[in-house]
Automatic annotation (TrEMBL), chains A, B:
This is Acyl-CoA dehydrogenase. It comes from Cryobacterium glucosi. Belongs to the acyl-CoA oxidase family. InterPro entries: ACOX_C_alpha1, Acyl-CoA_Oxase/DH_mid-dom_sf, Acyl-CoA_oxidase, Acyl-CoA_oxidase_C, AcylCo_DH-like_C, AcylCoA_DH/oxidase_NM_dom_sf. Residues 1-30 are annotated as: Disordered. Residues 305-463 form the Acyl-CoA oxidase C-alpha1 domain. It comes from the Bacteria. Pfam families: ACOX, ACOX_C_alpha1.
Length: 696, 696
């Protein structure tokens, strides 16, 4: 909530929470947050585009309306898409010569803001321009761009991104739809061989799509060249399926019901040879296949890699949804009162320790995600604008996407749910927005790459990086490396130094705490964990290289859980690093101080979450481990007075939040009740308590 | 799924999962599960009533239909309630002389099964017969029973349980609605003094309720005697509000939209003196107040205590929802294949370690909850049937409710969500049931007692129990007690004995593991944690007794998070104990073996979750702590072949599950795809791979 007039929990230094302890040891003056400066920092690298987008999402006609039927909601979102097409808000990534701006990062920045209007609008726009349109742009060539992009951009051609099949979601390489080249007629014959090969969960497929970018196994001359994309007409001008095309409606979903997801099947449908989107692979008239990328595997990953923007935008949108949920819950929690703690007046619920524990660490995580997302978006922009788009850059970008998207989409579900429970029964009402956000965001965890599968990709990359250091070397090198590491650490790092803590720390919690809030100590704790986990797993997997494929797979499988945990640790480290860089770049002194505490809360929260690991691996003594929780309690109490400013800095107006409980209504009710009792007592007509003497 | 013909993952001993390791150390023959015997055991103490209820919930006309509008859903559920009234399924708790059975435990057993038909049906039935009807029965006297219960039972009088107000949910004692006695007219004047005092979130209030049990501050002769319940007419025969009554619809909610929740307000509405439900407190014609319970506090808790059955039934219903979700996800996970792990065929996803880690521990938790719930229900029945209903019994029952309901309702949300994600995109479709269950169960975490507030009640009880041991004694006693404890433990318990582990365990993981699976070791680890946490907190809170109320509240607040964690640990211990007793009572040898593993998974899962605590407090050495995770991995692999039998034993038929992905459809698709490729290869027409030589 940007409107400061509606705030009831002043964060001015004169009124800190009663629970806020005095800083111990060193003198720390109580800072103030400069909300406009912090808001500006959170807007990231494309602030003007985000501000413009927020003007758009504040317009009622672009917003979701709870309680519409599925049919009504779908119609409304389709109409909203037409508005977006007219506004041009969604065209920034397209080529300049077609009316776009070739602005890839800015496009995503503006696009992900749509989540505040209605996640269905965001995702349906993403299907049309982000997936369907991008596939034509990145996998097609100039002739496809000129023929199809204008209609895609204007929404004259609503379309489908037909990749996933009922039988294969995460394993795209195994899709079963075939596109077999017939040199006689210079056509591809597109066919769905069995039920599991039906295309499924496709946005725009149930109703609106009149064409698709279809992914199928390209077969020519009796050879399967792997998955390629084709331009595939679906429906005629009356909306009826073309001959050979059939489909089904996926029907009601757990959320995102403004999108008409559906299934498609093809019965030997013929399309012209030119419909192959042939940027990375082509078929000549005579059926000869050619590609500039000789390795089928690399070709496949190159084609899929162009679609990374879906993951980028989900990372951003999930973070925004978390920010909105926290703004609602913190605003309500700062006004709502329940139970008299010790005095006469009922206590504001955000003054309860448990309530702070529920919300403040999630504010820290959302800040970490916001900063990490902006760096991610800058990296994405560099790759897609061609500033830095080597193979290595692209692989780094994909690893970043695979690490960050799972963390932020899971965190959104966790955060929105915690916010909903923190608002009690009021949180369960649709009018307070949280349940709708939660329902819509649910599928973010499994689409555009299932989170669990993505984290395995990260883990494999980490293992590859690790093993590259030992390529062309015998196993003796590994042993020497480990010794070397140990020596390095003893000299420079936190890792082994902490092993000596049991003695050094004894009796000195203050000194332990002092170390924990050092940036380098946090960095070492988090980095060391990732490195150690990967080294451990690599050691356990080494025998697998000598086994049969099945045995090798079994060994790998026996460590799958550890691998995923290591990948998660890596993603957390990336978020922490981005947060730390953001703190370093903060110029306002008050903001820098509060962000430092918030970063400490995030970093030490991660250490607390994984405390058993640090203890088992001798990185923290029991004494110091205990001080982690104690110090987190202190930071949280210290941050309490800044809670409202921290969420206000996300910059959402009442038009974005649209939650009655965050509108100031609760404060009005509290004031009215307080005034009533004050007047009643003054009137002398207040009833006595049955056991009045017991009451103080 | 009870229909064994539809199972694809046989759990026969001949075909264990490839991932299942050989038991090490001792020879353990592979057991088989006797599904009918296990099903019978899981049905608990009222098996016939549950079986009868499941016949009812298998009837389509009692089931929810996804995608109805809120208005349609409300109408449907109201009609379903009429069916239930005719069936008499919901009358078991009512007095025999009115056509009931005075069967309190059996009533809840049957009632909570309704969740499988539609949670809206369960909760709306709960409002009518469980809250509204029970309040008349338990807080009213014979004249109220005879006047009102017949209409309540037959649904001639749909009613509202009007307790919660917008301003006060958990803190019922602070509700602001007043009922002021007017001796002149022998009436109570019911009034809503301000907006926050509106009754809110009330089922049946928006449309259907024609009367309410209303909770208000009873004021007579200028004295407030605290919260009492009143019979309150709301609407006339046309459905219009009576004079002075007004209301609002709560509108769309995150789930349970078959229930018409709403708000009510009263403008000096007069009701006859006799409308006071006067079992625990009465007002004579002249306005004199009388009560058999002299303490207002005890009177208040006695009145509220009669309503514990809401929490009992939510504990059972949440457990059933978890069981259904797991049945769906395990059935799908046993048929669905994705990625080739090492061989030619794609791997069944439940053979992936991570997938097992996601689902099997949750099966263990759901079993623990099922057994704990049955014991809870038996205790409830004893109190309400009068077999064991001393004050102490009632307090124990309330503590049990406050400990178990939070754990099982939170676990339901976690489990259903994990099941939904484990089913990928298919899990997000309404046709597969999981998203609807999750949405409906959401509010179970905050209604009928907010989970966080309930756990604080548990913690306070534990602290009271602890301090009672030291009543009338100086502080020296506490110190002696601690020494005594230490001595006891050194002789008899696991607690301090484990402090010596670091040396004893070194190099011997096997021996560590051997100890961990001993029942007494698990019991000691879990019990010791609860005791130690409470002792620690009690020590920290002791200075508070000498402080001002505000200071004392601040000290308490500074440990709120620890208190809640201790209460949770207590609830987990109760579940573990119930599971252990159930294992002891299991007669079938195969079932007993598998349940023992499952109990170990539950118990050691708790130890793993709290591993940092055990390490910091010296209860586990780093060596043994590490073996906890390793042993859990082993138990999970060992349990994998029994996963389908374990969920089938929950006893739900396809009519209860109503999830397409758990109907065998996935298996059919897999078979069809496999047959297609087999035939294609046999035909000689299969396309070659572009890089065929690379393929094995």
């Amino acid at each position: 909530m940007v409107d400061t007039a509606q705030r009831s929990a002043p964060s001015a230094p004169a009124t800190p929470s009663p629970a806020a302890p005095k800083p111990t040891g060193t003198f720390t003056p109580i800072p103030t947050i400069n909300v406009p400066a912090l808001s500006r920092q959170l807007l990231g690298s494309w602030p003007e585009i985000r501000i413009e987008a927020r003007k758009l999402t504040a317009r009622p006609e672009l917003q979701g309306v709870p309680g519409l039927s599925m049919a009504e909601h779908r119609l409304r979102v389709l109409e909203q898409l037409r508005l977006l097409a007219v506004e041009g808000h969604v065209h920034r990534a397209f080529p300049v010569h077609l009316g776009g701006e070739d602005n890839h990062g800015g496009n995503i920045a503006g696009f992900e803001e749509l989540v505040t209007a209605d996640p269905s609008l965001q995702i349906k726009a993403g299907v049309q321009w982000g997936l369907f349109g991008s596939a034509v742009m990145h996998l097609g060539t100039r002739k496809h761009h000129d023929a199809y992009l204008p209609g895609i951009m204007s929404l004259a051609t609503p379309g489908v991104f037909a990749m996933t099949e009922t039988g294969h979601g995460s394993d795209v390489a195994s899709i079963a739809t075939t596109a077999t080249y017939d040199a006689e007629t210079q056509e591809f014959v597109v066919h769905t061989p069995f039920r599991a090969a039906w295309k499924d969960y496709l946005g725009n497929a149930a109703n609106d799509g009149i064409a698709a970018v279809l992914f199928a196994q390209l077969i020519t001359g009796g050879v399967n060249h792997g998955v390629h994309a084709f331009w595939m007409p679906l429906r005629d001008e009356t909306g009826a399926f073309l001959p050979g095309v059939s489909g089904e409606d996926d029907g009601l979903k757990g959320g995102l019901n403004g999108i008409d997801n559906g299934r498609l099947a093809f019965d030997n449908v013929r399309i012209p040879r030119e419909n192959l989107l042939n940027r990375y692979g082509d078929v000549a008239e005579d059926g000869t296949y050619s590609s500039a990328i000789s390795s089928p595997g690399r070709r496949f990953f190159t084609m899929l890699g162009t679609l990374v923007q879906g993951r980028v935008s989900l990372d951003g949108a999930a973070t925004q949804a978390s920010a909105m949920a926290l703004t609602i819950a913190v605003t309500y929690g700062s006004q709502r009162r329940q139970f008299t703690a010790g005095g006469e007046a009922e206590q504001v619920i955000l003054d309860y320790q448990r309530h702070q524990r529920r919300l403040l660490p999630r504010i820290a995580t959302t800040y970490a995600q916001t900063f990490a997302h902006d760096e991610f978006l800058v990296a994405f922009d560099k790759v897609f604008s061609g500033i830095a788009d080597t193979d290595a850059d692209r692989q780094d970008l994909e690893t970043l996407a695979a690490a960050l998207k799972p963390l932020s989409t899971w965190a959104a579900l966790d955060t929105i749910q915690e916010a909903r429970e923190a608002c009690g029964g009021a949180g369960f009402l649709a009018e307070n927005r949280l349940v709708g956000l939660r329902a819509d965001l649910d599928v973010y965890a499994t689409f555009e790459g299932d989170n669990t599968v993505l984290l395995q990709l990260v883990a494999k990359r980490l293992l590859t990086d690790f093993s590259r250091k030992f390529a062309d070397a015998g196993s003796g090198v590994l042993a020497r490396y480990v010794v070397q590491q140990a020596t390095d650490r003893a000299l420079h790092n936190t890792g082994l130094r902490t092993l000596g803590q049991a003695v050094a720390d004894f009796g000195s919690t203050a000194r332990s705490v002092g170390q924990l809030r050092e940036t380098n100590v946090q960095r070492e704790l988090l980095t060391d964990r990732v490195e150690t986990m990967i080294r451990d797993i690599a050691g356990k997997l080494r025998p697998a290289s000598k086994l049969s494929p099945q045995q090798s797979a079994d060994v790998f499988n026996a460590h799958q859980d550890e691998l995923i945990e290591a990948a998660r640790a890596h993603g957390e480290l990336l978020q922490w690093e981005a947060f730390t860089r953001a703190v370093e770049h903060t110029t306002d002194a008050g903001n820098k101080q509060v962000l430092t505490w918030l970063r400490d809360l995030f970093g030490l929260g991660l250490v607390e979450k994984h405390l058993a690991w640090y203890l088992i691996n001798g990185r923290l003594s029991a004494q110091r481990a205990q001080s982690v929780t104690a110090y987190i309690d202190r930071i949280i109490a210290r941050l309490r007075p800044f809670a409202q400013d921290l969420v206000d800095s996300f910059g959402y107006s009442p038009e974005h939040l649209r939650a009655k409980i965050a509108s100031g209504a609760e404060q009005e009710r509290q004031d009215e009740a307080r005034d009533y009792y004050t007047a009643l007592r003054a009137s002398g007509n207040a009833p006595a308590d049955e056991k009045a003497p017991r009451k103080k």
